[in-house]
Amino acid sequence: MTDIAHTSQKEGIKPPVVSVGVIGWIKANLFNGWFNSVLTVVTLLFLWKTVPPFFLWAFMDSVWNTTGQVCRDAGGACWSIISSNLRFILFGFYPYDLQWRPLLAMIILFVLLYFSQNRKHWKKPLAYAWIAGLFIMGLLLRGGLFGLDPVESTQWGGVPLTLLLSVFGLTAAYPLGVVLALGRQSKMRAIKTLCIVYIELIRGVPLISLLFMSSIIFPLLLPEGVTINKILRAQMAIILFTAAYIAEVVRGGLQGMSRGQYEAAESIGLNYYQTMRLVILPQALKIVIPPTVSQLISAFKDTSLVVIIALYDLLKTTQTVLSNPEWMGFSREAYVFVAILYFLGCFSMSNYSRKLEKELSRGD
Amino acid sequence: MVGLLGYYLVSNTLHNLERQSIATGFGFIHQESSFEIGESLIDYSAASSYGRALIVGALNTLYVSFIGIVITVILGTVVGVARLSTNWLVSRLAAIYIEVMQNIPVLLQLFFWYAIFYETLPSPRQALNPITGVFLCNRGVAFTIPKAHPAHIYMAFAFLAGCIVVYLVRRWAKKRQERTGKLFPVFRVSIGLLLGLPLLTWWMGGAPTELNMPKLVGFNFIGGLTISPEFIALLLGLVLYTAAFVAEVVRAGIQSVSKGQTEAAMSLGLRPPMVLNLVILPQALRVIIPPLTSQMLNLTKNSSLAVAIGFPDFVSVANTTINQTGQAIEGVALIMLVYLFFSLLTSAFMNWYNKKAALVER
Amino acid sequence: MDKESSVTTEQKLSDEAIIEIIDMHKWFGDFHVLQGINLTVHKQERIVICGPSGSGKSTLIRCINRLEEHQRGRIIVDGIELTNNIKNIEKIRAEVGMVFQHFNLFPHLSILENLTLGPIWVRKTPKKEAEETAMYYLEKVHIAEQAKKYPGQLSGGQQQRVAIARSLCMNPKVMLFDEPTSALDPEMIKEVLDVMIELAQEGMTMIVVSHEMGFAKSVAHRVLFMDFGQIVEGNTPREFFENPQHDRTKLFLSQILH
Question: Is the complex ipTM higher than 0.85?
Answer without folding.
Answer: no
